[in-house]
Amino acid sequence: MFNQKQLDAIDNEIQTNLISAGIDHVLLVDMAGNTIAAHDNGKSSLDSTAFAALAAGNYAAVDAMAKLVGESEFSLLFHKGEKASINFSKINEDTLLITMFNKEISLGLVRLKVSETVDKISTILNSG
Amino acid sequence: MNSSSELKKIIESINSSISTQDSTALYGLIARLKDQNATDPNAVSLLTMIQELVKYIAARGPKAHGDAQPLLVSLTEQFDQIVRNPEMEKERGNQIVIQEKKKFIALKNIIRSQPAPVIETKDLNDLKAVILALEWEISPDTVQKFEEATKNLLFKLQDYKLYYVLLKIILSTGNYIGAKKASANIDTIPFLRFSFDSFEQLAQNPGMAYQRKKEILDTCIHKFRELKQQIQLSPQHEHKMPSSVSTADDVDSAPDSGEEPLEPALSRFKSVPLGKTDKTGSLTPLPDHHHTDSAHPPGFDDDDSVPDQEGMDPEPEDRRDIMDDLFSGKESPADELLDAIHLLDINGGNQDKAQNILDSRSQSGSLTNFTPTKRDNEPIPEISTRLDELFNLTPETGNEETFSVPATDRTKKTEKNEKHSVITAPDVPTEGSEDSQSSGVIPFHNEDEWVDEENLKENDGLFDTLNTLHTIFKDRAWMKDQQSIDSIEEKISFLKTEWKDDRDKTSLLQIVTVLMDTTQNFDRNMDSQNDLSMMEPLPEKPMGIFGKIKNMFQKG
Amino acid sequence: MALINVKTREVQIKIVYYGPGRGGKTTNLEYINKTYTKQIKTKMVSLKTEGDRTLFFDFLPFDVGKIKGFDVTIQLYTVPGQVKYNATRKLVLRGVDGIVFVADVQKEQRKKNIESLNQLYENLDTTYKLDLFKLPLVMQYNKIDLKNSTIPVLPSSIMQKDLNSVLQVPAFEASALNGGNVIVTLKKIISSTLASIQDQIF
User: Fold this and answer.
1) B141 touches chain A (CB under 8 A)
2) Hey, what's the torsion of the CAs at A30, A31, A33, A37, to 10 degrees?
3) Measured CA distances, B218 to B60, B108, B169, B230, C50 (Å)
4) Which residues are CB-contacts of C42 (< 8 A; sequence separation ≥ 6)?
């Protein structure tokens, strides 16, 4: 699905756009819950295997709910916590980008940064 | 000297406002005079006050306090005097300055005690809403709305310096975020929130002391400057090696083949019960004839992997494990109930405590949650019969509750192994002949052909009983045969149990019993007399009634 | 956790099909769903991957009907079987009332069966403080039809020793794809589960 060149490029985008900008964790997963790429800022640990599986399941469940209410999908899937929050972004039908950030950084800003990164990753994936 | 008279001239020429050009010239002049008179502290003090007043008047223009201009003139006069008379006594000079200072401070207080502005709640809430919206989404739309709300308030509060300055800071920050979008410094939005909170504090506390208000503003200005500095310094990017993550799961190593002994599952949690080492639960096999259509794909999926080791590096103590809280036992009513259930030991001493918990749960409404804890209960017959009905493929048209499959005849029940739905096909070994694999063999039939013979018989049981009764009653010999009487009574008792929820039928059965007794008594009387002459035709009435009852039974 | 509403006279119980990946849990539910479409009025929900592996759960609710005046609803769930989905399995186990353990008789899966069962015990214990030995449980040894193929399978005696020597619960050989003993297993677990709570209701 991904060649090494693509993976390296994706890693770079995530690192420069997201981790450097203050986001704590970034996971690129497929819809089956497999982790394609995982990045963090070194300040906290995360069981990315379990997290990826749950995230994929969560996304799938919410997607099923969207269809039940007549939506093709929801554009915002965001979980707000006291200290940490999680944002889901679909890259394409097979991949999800999950960002975890603390309260120092606002969702609005995260969404903008993620949106840019998603565009770049899509370009990378399409260019092969 | 020239400078001081120049100053005096300019000051006296000020009417209501000072133009920017004038104020700049004035500041320059005042600065020069300060230098010239640096050795004279009184002169410097007066010049400082003059400078402050000039600033004030220049900023407020026609809205400046009426006393500001006269005071400015007075200060300038005094300054001129001090400068022209260098031989003036120091004491005299000090007194002049003290006097002017008093006036200056008095004016300052008057200006400061100006009533706080009335800020409409709607305007404040509008601003709050747009700032919150910006936290969620930075788009042209949200930025525009933000600008509108801020500018609206700026217009209304332009005469109130403190508020005005705060709003300017808010506007400036918001505009920066709107301009930079994704590249905005991440601290700007929290700062925006902070400045709004400060503004809100001022707005909601009009009676707040001026000093406190100034402190709040100063803090905000200080942070604003710090942020500005931060933004101007280019951020250092740290390049880290991305963590290497394999994209393919490890292929599981082939499990042990062959039937070598492996430690059975759960043996480390519980030892095999004593005396049951070679026993296992009952096994129901699947007869071979059912295997023919197998289209099962061979092998297993190689995707199954050994648990991923990559995320499990030994963590330094200061790292926070985010997954810690995910499954922590959180106290909830359900947990409480669980505790109660675990405490609940039929023969144990914790019964009361557990029961209290359970009672308090059930009293909280008709809804209770209950976790099954007993595995070995025998199900009540209704469960089995209902399940049999459900999974029987003959279509049903509803009304399950009226169609109640009767329980097995008690005499038959004891012969079975407590399995109401046991079926035995002729080619399957019965329970008596065990093979090495299983005990209590329950063979499998294809679901479509599945027929519960026992239940079918039981469905007819009621009708058979009635028929039997009818046959017995028809033959009048029953009255003389105790065995028959016992059998009748037993059958009637059985029917009463079956129809215990049906009042009409149980009433009819009671009538039958009464009639039985009456008939028996009558018959005994007849026998004892043994007199043909006394023989009367049998009363028609009971028969007639019984015939009707019989008919009713037959109809069902 | 069985939900009992004495006011509306409703009972809801949750039964989870558990076991190693690709063992036949989803197949069991699919068979039930396909065969009893008339009796089962609600739609089966299946959250799967593209490769047809369960991602989150399969869900099949159906009404058993009235038992002693109580409307009984059964909620059937399957868990994702693959090793990496253990966190998800824990979630699906929440509130479980009865379990069907679907084991795979293929020789290659022997270890997986045991590991899965051990993990089930641990999951229930650590996450919900539930004792597997106290929950209604039924074993299913699935894919028994492979006996007639070239694929090596374990005899039921080994399956029993591996998986049922400590538990000693009813076990059924099965062929879920063809429906063999699927319903019998289901009936047994429903019956056991209802029996374990019948004192509360019936």
Assistant:
1) no
2) 20
3) 20, 18, 12, 18, 59
4) C60, C61, C62
Which of C5, C109, C175, C185 best tests the B interface by mutation, with the highest count of B CBs <10 A?
C175
Mutate: best of B240, B301, B315, partner A, most A CBs <10 A: B240
Q: Which of A32, A51, A54 sits opposite C53 (nearest CB)?
A: A32
Question: What residues of B are in contact with residue A125 (Cβ under 8 Å)?
Answer: none
* Among candidate residues A29, A85, A82, the one with its CA nearest the CA of residue A56: A29
> Tokens standing for B342?
């675990």
**C29 CB-contact burial (10 Å; exposed 0-12 / middle 13-18 / buried 19+):** buried
Q: What angle do CA C71, C76, C79 make, to 5 degrees?
A: 160
Which among A4, A25, A45 is the top mutation candidate for probing chain B, defined by the most B β-carbons within 10 Å of its own β-carbon?
A45
For chains A and B, what is the number of CB pairs under 8 angstroms? 100
Tell me the count of A-C CB pairs closer than 8 A.
45
DSSP state of B117: P
Report CB contact under 8 Å: C84, A60. Answer: no
Average pLDDT over residues B106-135: 85
Tens digits of residue pLDDT in B341-356: 444 433 444 555 545 5
What letter represents residue B206's amino acid?
P
State how far residue C187 is from chain A, nearest Cα, in angstroms: 29
d(CA C55, CA B82): 91
Q: What SS3 class is residue C140?
A: strand
- With H, G, I as helix, E, B as strand and everything else as coil, classify residue B27: helix
Which residues from chain B sit within 8 angstroms of residue C67, using beta carbons? 382-383, 386
Residues B348, B349, B351, B356: what is their CA dihedral angle, to the nearest 10 degrees? -170
CA separation for the pair C152, B255 (Å, rounded): 13
Q: How many Cβ atoms are within 10 Å of B523's Cβ, its own excluded?
A: 15
Structure tokens at C81: 């079987």
Nearest CA in chain B to A11: B242
The tens digit of pLDDT for each residue in C46-70 reads 888 888 888 888 888 878 888 888 8
pTM of structure? 0.53
> How far out from the chain centre does Cα B153 lie?
39
Residue B233's Cβ-count burial label (10 Å; 0-12, 13-18, 19+) is exposed
In which band, very low, low, confident or very high, does the pLDDT at B290 lie, cut at 50, 70 and 90? low
Phi, psi of C46, rounded to the nearest 5 degrees: -130, 115
Instruction: List the single residue in A53, A64, A94 with the smallest CB-CB distance to C84.
Output: A53
Chains with 3 or more CB pairs closer than 8 angstroms to C?
A, B
In this structure, are residues A30 and A95 in contact, taking their beta carbons and an 8 Å threshold?
yes
Which residues, 6 or more positions from B59, have their beta carbon under 8 angstroms from its beta carbon?
Answer: B161
Contact assignment for C113 to B265 by CB distance below 8 Å: yes
Is C108 close to B281, i.e. CB distance below 8 A? no
**Is residue B463 predicted with pLDDT exceeding 90?**
no
- C55 and A50: CB-CB below 8 Å? no
User: Which ipTM value was assigned to this complex?
Assistant: 0.86
* SS3 letters across A32-70: CCCEEEEEECCCEECCHHHHHHHHHHHHHHHHHHHHHCC
Model confidence over C87-145: pLDDT tens digits? 888 888 988 999 999 999 999 999 999 999 999 999 999 988 999 999 999 999 999 99
